[in-house]
Write a structure and sequence with these properties.
Elements lengths: L16 H4 L10 H5 L8 E4 L4 E4 L4 E4 L4 E4 L11 E2 L4 E2 L7 H5 L6 H6 L17 H11 L2 H11 L6 H23 L8 H5 L3 H6 L10
């Protein structure tokens, strides 16, 4: 007896696979959804230019060629914040973002054509007179992601790693200091941290098996 071919999917069966792989990247077309309050800063995370990110087209971890804003994940994984696992539903389905509207797992052509195009960055959705913009600029200068990535690459090739680890430790302290200033002096809500600064450098390093000793 021959094997039975699996039924070809031609519509969403609410399996949740796409939502479990991560939240969507925000495009300019999505700004109206943000402005209407359906999604807030606390639901977003910034992927800084030069930061490793999974390329959906190649399935490989690659350095981001530009700043990207994504919907945050839940817990320790990247599953979309708005995905309700209990009934495989989306909490903001009526106001879902562009990539979610374009995604059809049985035909990804529309989504593929939009990936990486017309995406927003932080300054696109922060008021021009907001003092946090200056803090973001300071953070980028003190903790340049591309320079940090170069140090990480150097670290993997060195036998004596002490000097490079020291440089990375200094960057971690700078990263922490800028964040602390924003919280204590500007009153930045901690819920907004991942959007304003991206993930803490200490977390990015630990995810790659690199541990630095912080000063007390």
């Amino acid at each position: 007896m021959g094997s039975v071919s699996p039924k070809k999917i031609t519509e969403c069966i609410r399996c949740g696979t796409c939502c479990l792989k991560g939240g969507p990247v925000i495009h300019h077309e999505d700004k109206k959804i943000l402005c209407a309050g359906h999604i807030g800063y606390q639901h977003l995370v910034t992927i800084r230019k030069g930061e490793p990110v999974l390329n959906p087209l190649t399935g490989k971890l690659e350095s981001s060629q530009k700043e990207l804003i994504k919907v945050i994940g839940k817990g320790e994984d990247w599953s979309c914040f708005f995905y309700n696992k209990e009934d495989s539903s989306c909490k903001i389905y009526a106001h879902r973002l562009l990539e979610c509207r374009l995604l059809k797992c049985w035909d990804t052509a529309e989504l593929v054509s939009a990936i990486g195009k017309n995406t927003i960055n932080r300054t696109d959705i922060i008021n021009p007179d907001d003092p946090i913009r200056q803090i973001i600029e300071t953070h980028e200068k003190k903790c340049p992601c591309e320079e940090i990535e170069n140090l990480i690459l150097t670290l993997s090739k060195e036998s004596d790693k002490s000097e490079t680890l020291q440089k990375l430790t200094e960057f971690v302290h700078k990263d922490m200091a800028v964040r602390h200033y924003a919280f204590s002096e500007l009153g930045l809500k901690t819920d907004f941290e991942l959007f304003i600064f991206g993930r803490p450098l200490s977390k990015l390093l630990s995810d790659r098996g690199i541990t630095v000793r912080l000063k007390k």
